[in-house]
Amino acid sequence: MAPAASFDLDRRPSIPESPQSPASGRRRRSVHAALGSGAVADLLLWRNPTATASVAGAATVFWILFELAGYGLLSLAANSLLLLVTILFFWAKSASLLNRPLPPLPKLEVSEEVVGRVSGEARVWINHALSVARDIAIGRDRKVFLKVMLVLWIVSYIGGLFSFLTFVYIGVVLSLTVPALYEKYQDLIDEKLCLAHSVLLKQYDHALRRTLRQSNKEKKLY
């Protein structure tokens, strides 16, 4: 007779975690999908650590060369091309003398497909920027206005503190850290952002009402 199966009453079947936030009940947004679900999203979210670390290392090297060492971009490009052309020339010359294969250079040309893809992506971003500008100018969307105003003020303030190259390097570092941190702590960050957004809207409404009252008083005086 087979022994009876023993059950542990304290053990309960594991329930898969809900995609909703436990604090607010909202569904968690997919950061990977928001970033396009492609190679760029994998790069920004450290899904491919080797590629992301390579980009971060290359950006750091360029920043050190151009900002700290004072090396010029034109000088670096010219010296790099000079070194590359020299190596390829002597390689091809020695290959012809020693009956060796020539340097494995690919066909250097830009295809129409690549140009069309780049222009299509640029058109999407330009149309999005124009749509945001139209919402602010004609649609009077105060939320979009506040977001754009805050972003432009931050960019202007940071731009006055650093050089353009340092600003670009900070942007690269933030791009490689902020999305990954947001994906990890999305619930907490969303809660704080919603609170800050409500406070900003209240302050904006208060300032708008005060401005309207002052303008009405001035009209009554005249």
From TrEMBL:
Membrane topology annotation? Multi-pass membrane protein
Location in the cell: Endoplasmic reticulum membrane
Question: Would you tell me the protein name for this molecule?
Answer: Reticulon-like protein
Out of the domains of life, which is the source?
Eukaryota
Matching Pfam families, A to Z? Reticulon (PF02453)
Give start and end of each Reticulon domain.
40-206
Q: Where is this region: Disordered?
A: 1-28
One biological process term in Gene Ontology: response to bacterium
Q: Which UniProt keywords apply?
A: Endoplasmic reticulum, Membrane, Transmembrane, Transmembrane helix
Q: Which residues cross the membrane?
A: 68-92, 150-172
Q: PANTHER family, per this entry?
A: RETICULON, RETICULON-LIKE PROTEIN B11
Q: Which organism is it from?
A: Dendrobium catenatum
Assigned GO CC terms:
endoplasmic reticulum membrane
Q: Which gene encodes it?
A: RTNLB10
Where does the signal sequence lie?
Answer: none
